[in-house]
């Protein structure tokens, strides 16, 4: 692994995990951010998480399921031991394989960016 990879804010859960906020609050946090800006939050579905990401200037949401085999967006892709592993994978891999309207990677953790002026 390259040294640069270790420096990515993606390795710091606090840059993208925002805990228990609702869909509207997630949209407010991501409003005006560049494509690929994302956050992970608790889902309204018990035991699940949600990924909110900016695509074409709009915020999209997808459920992250936690199963016996790990975290993921759908079977049989629930392969990640942690949310961080999932985030690191989709930093380089588009979400389009799960949803045609999600042609984006998890490029920019929402809390790693300088505040908007």
UniProtKB/TrEMBL annotation:
<dbReference type="InterPro" id="IPR000980">
    <property type="entry name" value="SH2"/>
</dbReference>
<dbReference type="GO" id="GO:0008286">
    <property type="term" value="P:insulin receptor signaling pathway"/>
</dbReference>
<protein>
    <recommendedName>
        <fullName>SH2 domain-containing protein</fullName>
    </recommendedName>
</protein>
<feature type="domain" description="SH2">
    <location>
        <begin position="16"/>
        <end position="110"/>
    </location>
</feature>
<dbReference type="GO" id="GO:0046935">
    <property type="term" value="F:1-phosphatidylinositol-3-kinase regulator activity"/>
</dbReference>
<keyword id="KW-0727">SH2 domain</keyword>
<dbReference type="GO" id="GO:0005942">
    <property type="term" value="C:phosphatidylinositol 3-kinase complex"/>
</dbReference>
<dbReference type="GO" id="GO:0046854">
    <property type="term" value="P:phosphatidylinositol phosphate biosynthetic process"/>
</dbReference>
<dbReference type="Pfam" id="PF00017">
    <property type="entry name" value="SH2"/>
</dbReference>
<dbReference type="InterPro" id="IPR036860">
    <property type="entry name" value="SH2_dom_sf"/>
</dbReference>
<dbReference type="InterPro" id="IPR035020">
    <property type="entry name" value="PI3kinase_P85_cSH2"/>
</dbReference>
């Amino acid at each position: 692994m390259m040294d640069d990879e270790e420096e990515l804010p993606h390795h710091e859960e606090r840059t993208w995990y925002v805990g228990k906020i609702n869909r509207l609050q997630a949209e407010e946090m991501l409003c005006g951010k560049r494509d690929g800006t994302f956050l992970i939050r608790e889902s309204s579905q018990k035991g699940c998480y949600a990924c909110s990401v900016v695509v074409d200037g709009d915020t999209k949401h997808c459920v992250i399921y936690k199963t016996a085999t790990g975290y993921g967006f759908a079977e049989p892709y629930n392969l990640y031991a942690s949310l961080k592993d999932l985030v690191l994978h989709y930093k380089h891999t588009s979400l389009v394989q799960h949803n045609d309207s999600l042609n984006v990677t998890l490029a920019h953790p929402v809390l790693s960016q300088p505040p908007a002026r």
